[in-house]
Specification:
- The complex is a heterotrimer of chains A (89), B (168) and C (98).
- Chain B is mainly alpha-helical and 168 residues long.
- Chain B has five helices and no strands.
- Chain B has two domains: 89 residues; 41 residues, no CATH class.
- The longest helix of chain C has 25 residues.
- Classes of the chains: A mainly alpha (89), B mainly alpha (168), C mainly alpha (98).
Chain lengths: 89, 168, 98
């Protein structure tokens, strides 16, 4: 399946580049989740299903959850930005 | 090609078609609610058809049970996720798309079929009031906010910025 | 039969790649998350098809894990990021910079 492998490699590069280059943190997190999924598929095509299992569980699953949780924490923690800046002498 | 293989091929093609249509809906539909709608169809039916297409060539009953288990989990997951996202959007007061064509034809023709002004929509007459009452903050977004180019107030666009955040 | 399965696999991955556009454009953060959820299900279907093509039964276990964990991401998103009944925790990043 050369076409699948080709688009897979292309998607890997594109998602990685987008996840790294975007300024929006949430977009970067979602891109990272998608990158983990595509990476798992790439491991499958490389005939390494065990690594694909680990990548799907850790890369696409748990790391995504942890990053989303962190993002929610940051958004709550750093909510009052403008009032603080206005009050600051 | 036996009859079973023919049926398998049809099921697989239909499943892939559902995924394609679901992605098309995700790309083309105007707001969160309709995208949830497109998505859950693709999840449930697309994966279901592909699973049933693969089922006859399963080597053992255990494999077949595993395939059905994957589908069952995906069913539960997609239904739960769709419900949660739609409820969260409703609670946050995200206004539904009000692109109903105007019966008097007073809508700007270039808006027709896209996002009409909220004041012209049938939904706008009834639903946002209900939203405003049920919404805890009492402030639903009644301005018929266009989902794609939502003119959020500038103060609401702040987000955490790691570059400047440490300076406070 | 194998040719058809390969065709289905390529088509599934093509839809996944097309969905990347929605992740990039948003506009709301929920739209990006929904796209990620569709990617999860598409990946599950793709893994099941590839398990048949490559005669690798272990891939069905990968699909099982992926189906389970794709739900967790959406749960974390709704419960931790997009929460807020009335009080606006996190705004829809309707973002048009970059």
């Amino acid at each position: 399946m050369p076409w699948l492998d080709l688009t897979l490699a292309l998607a890997l590069i594109v998602t990685a580049a987008l996840a790294l280059s975007t300024g929006d943190l949430f977009r970067a997190v979602v891109m990272f989740i998608v990158f983990g999924l595509v990476m798992a598929l790439a491991w499958v095509r490389l005939e390494a299903p065990d690594i694909a299992l680990a990548e799907a569980a850790i890369g696409a699953g748990l790391t995504g959850v942890l990053l989303l949780d962190t993002l929610g924490y940051l958004n709550r923690r750093f909510r009052p930005v403008e009032p603080d800046r206005n009050e600051a002498p | 090609m036996t009859a079973i293989e023919l049926v398998q091929g049809l099921l697989l093609a239909a499943g892939a078609g559902f995924f394609a249509v679901g992605t098309l809906g995700l790309l083309r539909f105007p707001d969160v609610y309709s995208r949830v709608h497109a998505l859950t169809k693709a999840d449930n039916l697309g994966l279901g058809l592909i699973v049933f297409g693969l089922l006859p060539s399963a080597a053992s009953p255990a494999t077949a049970v595993k395939l059905l288990l994957v589908w069952g989990i995906a069913l539960v997951a997609s239904a739960t996720a769709g419900y949660l996202v739609a409820r969260a959007a409703h609670r946050r007061g995200v206004a539904p798309w009000t692109g109903t064509p105007d019966p008097q034809g007073s809508v700007d023709p270039k808006n027709r079929g896209r996002r009409a002004n909220a004041a012209h929509g049938l939904w706008a007459a009834s639903v946002p009031d209900r939203l405003a009452r049920s919404h805890p903050s009492g402030e639903a977004r009644r301005d018929g906010a266009r989902p794609d180019t939502d003119p959020a107030p500038a103060s609401a666009k702040r987000r955490f910025d790691p570059d400047t955040e440490g300076e406070r | 039969m194998t040719a058809l399965l390969e065709l289905v696999a390529v088509l599934l991955f093509a839809t996944l790649a097309a969905g990347l556009l929605r992740v990039w454009r948003g506009p709301g953060i929920a739209d990006r998350m929904l796209a990620a959820q569709l990617f999860g299900t598409t990946g599950v279907a793709l893994l099941l098809v590839l398990a048949e093509v490559q005669a690798a039964p272990a891939l069905r276990d990968v699909a099982l894990v992926l189906a389970l964990l794709a739900l967790l991401a959406v749960l974390a998103f709704v419960a931790r990021v997009w929460r807020g009944t009335g009080s606006v925790d996190t705004e829809d990043a309707s973002d048009d910079r970059d």
